[in-house]
Amino acid sequence: MHVLSIERREWLKQYGWGLLFTPLCVFFVLTADSYDSSGLLGFLVHSLNLLPHEAGHFFFRFFGEFMMFLGGSLWQILLPAIIAWSCFRHDQRIGTQLALLWLGQNFIDVSIYAADAQDRALPLLGGLGPESHDWYNILSMLGMLEHTQLVAGIIFFFAIPCWALMLVVPRWVW
Fold first, then answer.
1. Terminal Cα-to-Cα distance of the chain (whole angstroms)
2. Alpha helices, H only, the chain
């Protein structure tokens, strides 16, 4: 038995995507210009991203040192992407949109971490030293440390299609 009436479900199918426009703007405005995680919203968003990041280190450590460093950021991106795909496959429009919102925000989060590879100024979990900075190690191992800003910019760019898909694709698909 469906809790929502047919009219309400149709309204949500037609206009529900617009309900996510405001959170998108809030996330973009509050998280795009700084990474200090100040305030409750910044703390919640960063904490939501940090859990899969740290789990990724554990999951990927079995594949060598390079994958252990990359695994945090990789799982931080893969988890919301998997959730978005699953919601999409099950015709859950709002779930798909929320997962795409989260995915785009994770690309921003990872890009800020990658941009810090040379300076290593961001505080690391558990008070670890600068030698434990994931992106410093990743880019050093790849011989790309001098291209830190380019790599961070490319990662940042991927947030834009995620958010565009969040707003556009559900209207086309359903």
1. 21
2. 6-15, 21-32, 39-60, 65-89, 93-115, 134-141, 148-157, 159-173
Instruction: Tell me, yes or no, if the pTM score tops 0.85.
Output: no
Residues with Cβ within 8 Å of residue 154, at least 6 apart in sequence: none
Q: Are 70 and 114 in contact (CB under 8 A)?
A: no
Work out the angle between the directed axes of helices 159-173 and 93-115 (0-180°, nearest 10): 170
Token digits of residue 136: 């410093």
- 118-150 as b/e, with b when 16 or more CB fall inside 10 Å? eeeeeeeeeeeeeeebbbbbbbeeeeebeebee
92, 15 in Cβ contact below 8 A? no
pLDDT digits (tens, 9 = 90+) for 93-135: 888 888 999 999 999 999 999 999 999 888 887 778 778 899 9
Using a 10 angstrom Cβ sphere, with 0-12 exposed, 13-18 middle and 19 or more buried, the burial of residue 64 is exposed
